């Protein structure tokens, strides 16, 4: 097996050759591209040339040859000259007076090295005397290295901000060279011999550092900054953690070995097993990785976020194709949640009454969200102030804009809820994102607020654009539907006219009285049906009702339940005597639509329940089923959208037509649904007293059409 000692000469030869190439390249670079006005230009060129010569001699004669040692001394003196010239680069020539004695002392100490070399060549090769010479030479080299490092520290610490850009790369180069030499000579002094591997790599390292000196030789290179990405930093930290873990394992096992005996052996095995189990449990943990990221962002970077990476990830998440399982609204929640390392989130969108409703949830199936997740006052507060709510502050009682009274109770009680981010587009609230608490708990700060606010505005524009496109698609479908209905109405009108004319002619020209009578009855009935159909089609989609009056909700519910008798069980579980203002025919048609939908969603023997109750100044009839239920996204985006149906062969206008009929009567249709549990449709209509008040205020559509006495 070849040891490191046998490889050291070959490694040293390759390192010296590479170092000579680096130093020669640096010399050419400084001569051709270096700033000619720099005060250290000539000294830097001399240092590069002497470093190249030292590497060449080291490769040809060996690192310990007298000629190599003499050039090494000249190289160090050139380095000291460069540092001296750098002190004047900051315009501090007056402050050079206290520096000159230090420079002179370092030069004198460095000049002692040739003297030591001359003594070593003249005296007899006594082993004890050689050891003394070796130790003195190592001590002198350490003194020079320490002095140069102190000079570099004073140079950079006392430099102005503008001058640090000029000094940066030169300071890094000299600090690297003399820190390497200090480490090498310290190990040599303590061990009594030079470390062969460090000596072999000395030329390569010095050449690489001279390359950094060349980078800072012109203005363009001096402006370069080494800024490792966060990914590289996190990976480096992970490697350091693993290396520390292995180092601790080695130290502990070696310490246990000093005890000796079976106890030491048993302790070593037990410790190794414990260490391996701990590594298997903790190192793959998401919580540990999150903790490392938080600590690195907190202590190593000026800003917590890498804005370029965050923005690329945000746009990539939003722009992901529809081929995946996540919907657009779920991707929107994920895009905001990823910014703050939140594991889950909700999207709330205001309805037509400015109340917040749940539209989508991402990785948060357990939280219970009511049908009305937030009132219109909360929407108005978010829209007015654009304020991101820190829910921990809300729970603590901190109030900035009156949000304490508006945050709903369910959100206060959800301890996992961390922040509420409003989505504002052109001063209008498009939605709100509720973020779950990160795995590593921390407080929101100004950087979180700024980034979440900007990302929320961008996301709001996406949501508004998507809603606009959906509205255009609906309008296009309506236009196509209206054109088709126009043709149907035209054909039916012609047919009704022809049948009426046939009936009139048959009365005059039919010879057979019996045939004539039967034909007249048939034609009259057909004409009446076609005319009724024509009138109904003419009213479709106009949002009009025939006549408003008092309707007994309980009686209407009984009528509808009886209609489905024998088809499916429909139970009237509560029937308070309530009269509301409505059009009975339209209300019955809307209620039949809803009951039929409930029957379609329920099992054959599972009953559908009808509840008639009083709700303040309104009456309410609920259609409740225990069927398959609907997702919040389907309720929000598809349930009341015409031409969108979940039933095979369905036209998709039943729920839409029912809602439009109820609205035309001055009422409201609301829905609550949960997948696997069932649905509740609630029709709310005004009582006569409320209708009269609405008519007085002039904002009740039903009262405007027909005043209720």
From TrEMBL:
Pfam families: HATPase_c. The chain crosses the membrane at residues 12-31, 43-61, 67-87, 99-119, 131-152, 172-191, 197-219, 231-252, 264-283. SMART domains: HATPase_c (SM00387). It comes from the Bacteria. Residues 487-689 form the Histidine kinase domain. Keywords: ATP-binding, Kinase, Membrane, Nucleotide-binding, Transferase, Transmembrane, Transmembrane helix. Its EC number is 2.7.13.3. The keyword Cytoplasm does not apply. The keyword Metal-binding does not apply. It catalyses: ATP + protein L-histidine = ADP + protein N-phospho-L-histidine. This is histidine kinase. It comes from Erythrobacter litoralis.
């Amino acid at each position: 097996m070849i040891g490191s000692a046998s490889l050291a000469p070959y490694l040293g030869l390759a390192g010296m050759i590479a170092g000579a190439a680096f130093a020669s390249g640096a010399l050419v670079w400084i001569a051709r591209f270096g700033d000619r006005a720099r005060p250290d230009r000539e000294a830097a060129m001399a240092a590069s040339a002497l470093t190249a010569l030292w590497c060449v001699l080291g490769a040809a004669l060996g690192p310990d040859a007298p000629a190599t040692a003499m050039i090494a001394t000249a190289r160090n003196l050139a380095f000291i000259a460069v540092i001296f010239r750098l002190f004047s680069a900051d315009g501090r020539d007056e402050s050079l007076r206290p520096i000159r004695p230090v420079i002179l002392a370092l030069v004198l100490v460095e000049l002692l090295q040739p003297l030591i070399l001359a003594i070593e060549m003249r005296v007899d090769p006594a082993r004890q005397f050689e050891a003394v010479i070796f130790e003195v030479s190592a001590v002198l080299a350490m003194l020079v290295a320490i002095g140069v490092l102190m000079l570099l520290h004073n140079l950079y610490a006392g430099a102005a901000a503008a001058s640090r850009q000029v000094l940066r790369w030169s300071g890094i180069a000299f600090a690297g060279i003399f820190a390497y030499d200090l480490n090498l000579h310290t190990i040599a002094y303590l061990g009594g011999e030079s470390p062969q591997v460090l000596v072999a790599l000395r030329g390569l390292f010095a050449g690489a550092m001279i390359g950094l000196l060349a980078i800072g030789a012109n203005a363009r290179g001096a402006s370069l900054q080494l800024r490792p990405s966060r990914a590289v930093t996190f990976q480096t930290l992970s490697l350091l953690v693993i290396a520390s873990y292995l180092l601790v394992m080695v130290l502990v096992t070696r310490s246990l070995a000093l005890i000796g005996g079976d106890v030491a052996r048993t302790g070593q095995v037990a410790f190794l097993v414990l260490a391996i189990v701990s590594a298997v449990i903790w190192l793959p943990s998401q919580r540990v990785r999150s903790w490392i990221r938080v600590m690195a962002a907190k202590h190593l970077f000026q800003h917590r976020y890498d804005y370029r990476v965050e923005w690329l990830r945000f746009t990539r998440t939003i722009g992901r194709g529809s081929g995946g399982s996540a919907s657009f609204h779920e991707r929107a929640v994920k895009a905001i949640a990823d910014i703050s390392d939140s594991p889950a989130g909700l999207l709330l969108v205001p309805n037509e009454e400015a109340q917040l409703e749940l539209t989508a949830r991402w990785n948060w199936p357990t939280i219970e969200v009511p049908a009305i997740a937030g009132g219109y006052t909360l929407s108005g507060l978010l829209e007015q102030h654009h304020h991101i709510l820190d829910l921990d502050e809300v729970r603590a009682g901190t109030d900035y804009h009156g949000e304490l009274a508006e945050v709903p109770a369910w959100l206060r009680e959800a301890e996992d809820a961390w922040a509420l981010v409003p989505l504002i587009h052109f001063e209008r609230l498009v939605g709100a994102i509720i973020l779950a608490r990160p795995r590593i708990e921390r407080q929101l700060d100004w950087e979180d607020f700024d980034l979440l606010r900007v990302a929320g505005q961008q996301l709001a524009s996406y949501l508004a654009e998507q809603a606009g496109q959906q509205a255009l698609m609906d309008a296009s479908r309506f236009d196509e539907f209206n054109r088709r209905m126009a043709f149907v109405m035209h054909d039916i009108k012609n047919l009704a006219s022809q049948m009426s004319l046939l009936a009139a002619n048959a009365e005059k020209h039919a010879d057979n009285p019996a045939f004539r009578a039967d034909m007249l009855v048939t034609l009259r009935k057909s004409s009446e049906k076609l005319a009724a159909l024509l009138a109904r089609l003419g009213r479709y989609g106009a949002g009009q009702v025939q006549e408003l009056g008092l309707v007994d909700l309980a009686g209407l519910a009984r009528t509808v339940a009886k209609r489905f008798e024998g088809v499916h069980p429909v139970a009237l579980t509560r029937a308070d005597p309530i009269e509301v203002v409505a059009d009975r025919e339209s209300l019955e048609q809307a209620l039949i639509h809803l009951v039929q939908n409930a029957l379609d969603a329920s099992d054959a023997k599972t009953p559908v329940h009808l509840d008639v109750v009083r709700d303040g100044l309104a009456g309410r009839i609920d259609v409740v089923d225990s069927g398959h239920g609907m997702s919040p996204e389907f309720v929000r985006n598809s349930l009341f959208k015409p031409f969108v149906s979940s039933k095979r062969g369905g036209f998709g206008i039943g729920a839409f037509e029912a809602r439009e009929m109820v609205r035309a009567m001055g009422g409201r249709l609301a829905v609550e649904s949960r997948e696997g549990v069932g649905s509740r449709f609630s029709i709310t209509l005004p009582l006569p007293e409320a209708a009269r008040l609405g008519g007085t205020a002039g904002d009740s559509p039903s009262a405007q059409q027909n005043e209720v006495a």
